[in-house]
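User: Fold this; C-alpha cells only.

Assistant: Input:
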Amino acid sequence: MRNKPRWQKNFFCYLLQVLVPSVMEMAAVRRIKALRLAFLCLLFLVVYVNLAGPIWENLDLAMLISYKQQPRQNLSDAVHVLGRSEESYCGDPVTNFVFIKVHKTGSDSTAAIFLRFAYRHHMVMCYPRRQRGLRGFTLTFPSTEIYKSNCSRWNVLGDHYNFIVHHTVFNKTAMDGVMVPGTKYIGILREPQSHSRSVFFYHDRFRIFMKEEHDNPLGEFLDTPEYYEYLIRRQGVLGARNFQAFVMGFPPHMLRTQDTEVMDKAIRQLNESYTFVIITEYYEESLVIFRRKFCWDMYDILHSAKKIHEQHDPRKSIPLTHAQLQNHHRINAIDYRMYDFFNMTFWENVREETGRGFWEEVAYLKELLERVNTYCSTEQNESPLAVPASKWHKPFFVDHTLCAGLGRSPRKWADKLFDQMTGRDKIWKKINVTENKSVDQSQSGNETSAAIEIGNNSP
C-alpha cells in the first residue's frame, strides 16, 4: 500500500495542534458562563429573601391598619357572611320594610317568613283596625290610600311603624307617611297565566262559572272576557284585568291602556320604588338574593314546604286554545309586561351574584329546607336536629318550637306579633304618662316630688 507524502502528514499534525486546543477552550468558556449564571441566580435569591420579607410585612401591616380603621360592628348583633369572598360581610339586618302582598303568588308563605322575622326582632306592624277572626288578610285593599289611622293603636304606635304585610295596594307616597324613614319595599310577581288560573279557581266572584257542566270554565271566560268582566263589575268587585299590576301600584286609570310606551314608563317608575321583587317561579333563588340584599341570616328565610290554600280542581290545568291565550294576553298586557321586566331585573341580580357563590348557596338552601321539613313532618324525637354553622348562617337547632313556627299561618303570626306589640304598647303608654306627670310637676316647681313620681311609675 502506497504511503502518504510527508507534507500531508505534517499538515494533519498541524491541524490537530491548532483545532484541539480551540475546542477545549470553547468548552471551558461555556463552563465559565454557566458558573457565572449560577452565581448571579444565587445572588438574586439571597437579595430577594432579605428584601421581600419586609416588603410583604409592610403590605400586611397596611391592610391590617386599613381594616382596623373601618367602623366597628356591634358585637351584640349578628354579622353574616354573604356567600361571597371572605372579606365581604354584612352588618345589621334590615328591619324596616313593607311587603306588597299580591294575591295568589305564594304571598302567604312569604308573609309567614316575614312575620316570623318581625316577631323575632320585635318590629311594629301596622295591624288592621278591626276585630280578629274576620275573613281575609286585608289592611286597606282595594283602596289605593293608606293612613296611620288605618292601623290599630295608631295614636300610640303611629311613630314606630316599620312593617306592613297585610293586603294593600302599593302607594309609596302614602306609605312613606305611615312608615318610619328609610323603609324599603318588597313586591312579588307570578307568571300571569299561572296567576290567572289560581285566582280564577279560588275567588268567590268566579263561582258563576264553576257549575259542573262547565268542562273548561276559565276557557269559557276567556272566550268573551269583556262580557264576564261586566258581570263581575256589577257585583261590585274588582275584575280580572291586570290584577297584579294594580296591586303592585300601576296607576289604576291606566289599567286598560294598550300603549307599550306608557306601560314601560310607569313600570320603570315603579322599579325605582322597590328594593326587590320576588319571582314566584324562582322562589328559593329569590329568597337567596333577598337575604343578601337585606342582610338576613339563612335561618330567617326557612319556611314550610306545605303550600297554603293549595287547589285540587283538575279543571285548573286544562289547556287553553290559541284564541283564548290571545285574549288573556290582551286583557292582561300590563301584567305580562311587568312580569317580563321584573323577571329580567331578577336575572340581572343573579348574574351579579353568580361569581359570589350564589348557586352554591341556592343548592345548600334547598337541601337545608328538605332536611328541616322532613324533620318537622315526622314525629319529632326528644333530641332536636342540630344544624352546624355554615358561611350563610350560625349553628341552630330544629325542635318542635321552630317546627310550630314554620307551620303557623300568617293570620296566627300576625295575631302573635300584635300581642307582642300590645305588651309594649302598655309600656309606652306608661312611659308617656310618667313623662307628662314629671313635666307638669316640674313646671309647678315641685321637682322633688316629680322625681319620686317618675321613679315609682317607671316600668
